Amino acid sequence: MTSVCVMDASSCLGTRLVKCLLDRGYTVHAALQNYGESLFLNELECDDDDKRKKLKIFQSDPFDYHSIVDALKGCSALFYSFEPPSDHSTYDEYIGEVEVRAAHNVLEACAQTDTMEKVVFTSSATAIIWGHENDQNSASMDLDERYWSDINFCRKFKLWHALSKTVAEKTAWALAMDKGVNMVCINPGLLMTPDLTITNPYLKGSAEMYEDGVFVTVDLDFLVEAHICVYEEISTYGRYLCFNHIINQTEDAIKLANMLSPSPSSPQSSENDTRIIQQRISNKKLIKLMVECKPHINDLLANQEESI
Question: NAD-dependent epimerase/dehydratase domain: which residues (predicted)?
């Protein structure tokens, strides 16, 4: 069976991807950045000996080119997502430079891997949604994967997560095109995980996202299914905006606020505010693909109509 690499496999997304790929019979190179092997195996909770034989673990530093090449050796695909170094977990201008260097190294290594057939690059919806106030086209239609966040706007308002994701993704696309690497990109909304807190860098500017109708979230299971579908479907191309819920009414916003800051000072429900903000963001490209290649995905799509 095909060998694929997941980097960073120690992230929440990476660990779940490794598990699902093993379940599907792939041999998986798990490239770890912030975890040791024993901690990763505990997180993975994989007790099947046959699957464990298909798991190969690498310690991979995105700034150590040779460690990336080692992890990719013999693989036909890479699932890549960036996690800040454990000693610098908050996003700032420095992390943007770090993420760009990491993306450059990884795509360069992919170009030098003869067996590499496809790279699934995980970016963010924040690389799409910011800085379109004066764009007449975006004012009359939904934002989707054709749009890019404005770098100067992000820098002006210190939207470091958006700036990092935008510049890193553009760097990856430039290298992929220059080196002939077959790359597709997934741009997920805010990932809903049990450890999500108010300090998550995606949430910078959340009030503006809400008012603009572009505050989108994604469940982990849905995001993993999207990655696998985008990889396994041979015809995929370009970018895929990925979310299965939009926060565009007061009830949802309050639920999220209470989840992020469960304390007596959390916002109270406003029964009089029944506004529903018009949705101005579209994931039609991804949904069409997923419905075609995974009929059971309707169960996960149902979350798009539900509250958090």
Answer: 9-194
Counting every residue written for the chain, the total comes to: 308
Calculate the CA 43 to chain-centre distance.
19
C-alpha closest to that of 182 among 239, 100, 120: 120
Q: How confident is the model at residue 264 (pLDDT cuts 50, 70, 90)?
A: low
Pick 137 or 290 by higher pLDDT: 290
To 10 degrees, what angle do helices 93-111 and 65-72 make? 50
Asked if residue 121 has pLDDT above 60, the reply is: yes
100: left (phi over 0), alpha (psi -120 to 50) or beta: alpha
How many other C-beta atoms are found inside a 10 Å radius of the C-beta of residue 271? Answer: 8
Distance CA 166, CA 59 (A): 27
The pLDDT of residue 133 is: 77
pTM of the model: 0.91
Average pLDDT value over all residues in the chain? 88
Residue 53: predicted pLDDT? 86
Closest CA to 138 of 155, 129, 285: 129
Three-class SS of residue 58? Answer: strand
The confidence score (pLDDT) of residue 266 equals 46
- State in Å, rounded, how far the first CA of the chain is from the last one: 38
SS3 content of the chain, % helix, strand, coil (to 5): 45, 15, 40
Sheet holding 3-7, edge to edge: 55-59, 27-32, 3-7, 77-80, 118-122, 183-188, 238-242
Rounded Cα gap, residues 117 and 3, in angstroms: 11
Report the distance separating Cα 287 and Cα 293, nearest Å.
10
- What is the average per-residue pLDDT within 212-238? 96
Highest mean pLDDT among 52-66, 69-83, 265-279: 69-83
Q: Which string of b and e fits 286-306 if b means at least 16 CB within 10 Å? A: bbebbeebbeebeebeebbee
Question: What confidence score (pLDDT) does residue 307 get?
Answer: 39
DSSP lists the bridge partners of residue 80 as 7, 121
